[in-house]
Design a protein that fits this description.
The structure holds 2 protein chains of 2 kinds. By secondary structure, chain A is mainly alpha-helical. Chain A contains 14 helices and 3 strands. Among the domains of chain A are: 80-150; 158-268, Phage tail protein beta-alpha-beta fold (3-Layer(bab) Sandwich). Chain A is 56% helix and 5% strand. Chain B is mainly alpha-helical. Chain B has a single domain (10-171), classed as PhyR, sigma-like (SL) domain (Butyryl-CoA Dehydrogenase, subunit A, domain 3, Up-down Bundle), CATH 1.20.140. Chain B has helices at residues 10-18, 22-44, 47-62, 73-92, 114-119, 124-136, 140-147, 151-171. The radius of gyration of chain B is 17 Å and the shape is globular. Mean pLDDT of chain B is 80; it is low at 99-111. The chains are: A mainly alpha, B mainly alpha.
Chain lengths: 269, 176
């Protein structure tokens, strides 16, 4: 056998994969490093650049400084991003969680380092919101394991498993839902999406409460938002079921069953 | 949001990461993670210790001064990983011998692949050179840099190893 053939044979043999936990650890470090004070992201703004001034430049700069002292400019208007970043410091967990949910819309991928650091927040809802943001922002390697650790709120996992259906539902207008019970709302959403709906009969007090409450408010504007809205209890707290979007159906699963389903799916991915 | 091109060069991915794109670093990890892990595990003969070493090697990459000279990534990562493996071996007495001389049959790489089985038939010093040449695309000069060996030594170890494997593969009737 020629040496080139040996090289070719060796190149053709697959290497075993490194453990998934290693990938998660490394990416977590990478996210932390981006979030550290010396990393250049829009969340902190670019580093100032110090340059030497010529004599003329120095005189002009002095004049500019003097004019600012004499005629101070009006303060710059606070941007939505500034506002959200200050709300991230909110002592109330509800405020922090809401700020995290809105952050992805404003800052996009640039919010990922901050979202990653919020996985360590003391409040479960904030951690879950950060995990959701990481998943929807393309950092599922960090977000999905974190969300599974939290043990609930898996709706966004459907973005990874059924991306096309997720996007279609996010872009389609939601139906009128006022006055309907939760199962009726889900069925209405299924009808509008052209999907079957599988809702298990309620068996626990929490499930019965969810199934019996009728909302007077109309639903949010898209099918996806309406679905997320309908899964919650009337007071906005998480409901007793999680949703799985299959190719032709909206399937609700009790929490424990859903946790097993998503853990198994993610491990296979 | 725009996605990172996974085929982009190492330097482009590192630059994108430094611009705030975590997914660019994910692509870099996916490019090197498995190979680094296999390499270090082969050196240390211990998967758990190898995970720690590979993580630390990537952390060193994260902390390379952005304004410094452009460093080719593969030699940087494999050199960092090897140095860290040597440190781990000295500090913790991890099974295996990084300063390669004696092979550790059946245990050196905790082999779970055909590739690992083949490497295990080689002495440790040849095993390392073959892996780096075949699976990382490093040149002989870069392998010499990573391992601290002289260039002719790297080339001769590689040649001896391939001759041995040639006989082995031909004897088993393996052809690809």
């Amino acid at each position: 056998m020629k040496l080139e053939e040996v090289e070719s044979a060796l190149r053709g043999i697959a290497l075993p994969r490194a453990p998934r936990s290693l990938r998660e650890r490394v990416l977590e470090e990478a996210a932390k490093e981006l979030a550290s004070p010396h990393a250049p992201t829009i969340l902190r703004g670019p580093r100032p650049r110090v340059e030497k001034l010529s004599l003329v430049g120095a005189i002009l700069a002095s004049a500019a400084v003097l004019s600012i002292v004499l005629f101070p400019p009006a303060p710059a208007p606070k941007t939505r991003l500034d506002e959200l970043l200050s709300r991230i410091q909110d002592p109330e967990a509800v405020g922090r969680a809401q700020a995290v949910r809105s952050l992805g819309d404003i800052a996009g991928r640039k919010a990922m380092p901050l979202a990653s650091s919020l996985l360590q927040d003391r409040d479960r809802d904030v951690r879950a919101a950060a995990a959701e943001l990481l998943i929807s922002g393309g950092a599922a390697e960090l977000g999905a394991p974190a969300l599974l650790r939290e043990g609930r709120g898996f709706t966004v996992m459907n973005l990874l498993r059924s991306a096309d259906l997720w996007k279609a539902m996010a872009g389609a207008r939601g139906p009128e839902l006022s006055g309907r019970s939760a199962p009726e709302r889900i069925r209405e959403i299924g009808r509008a999406a052209g999907l079957d709906v599988i809702v298990p009969p309620p068996s626990t007090p929490e499930e019965r409460r969810w199934a019996s409450e009728r909302r007077t408010k109309s639903g949010p504007p898209t099918l996806l938002a309406a679905l997320e809205f309908s899964l919650r209890q009337d007071d906005g707290s998480p409901g007793p079921y999680e949703v799985v979007l299959d190719a032709g159906a909206i399937r609700l699963l009790p929490l424990a069953e859903a946790l097993t389903f998503w853990r198994t799916w993610w491990e296979r991915e | 949001m725009q996605t990172v091109n996974a085929d982009a060069s190492d330097a482009a991915l590192l630059l994108a990461y430094r611009g705030g794109r975590l997914d660019a670093f994910t692509s870099l990890y996916d490019r090197y993670g498995d190979r680094l892990f296999f390499y270090v595990r082969t050196l240390l003969g211990n998967a758990e210790a190898a995970e720690d070493v590979v993580q630390e090697a990537f952390v060193r990459l994260l902390r390379v001064e952005p304004s410094g000279p452009e460093v080719p990534l593969a030699p940087f990562l494999f050199t960092a990983a090897r140095n860290l493996a040597v440190d781990a071996q000295r500090r913790d007495g991890v099974r295996g011998k990084v300063e390669a001389s004696a092979p550790a049959p059946g245990s050196a790489s905790e082999s779970d692949s055909e590739f690992g089985d083949l490497l295990d038939t080689l002495p440790a010093e040849q095993r390392e050179v073959v892996f780096l040449k075949i699976r990382t695309g490093l040149t002989f000069a870069e392998i010499a840099e990573v391992t601290g060996l002289k260039l002719p030594t790297v080339a001769s170890r590689y040649r001896y190893a391939l001759e041995k494997l040639s006989g082995l593969l031909a004897g088993e009737g393996i052809s690809r």
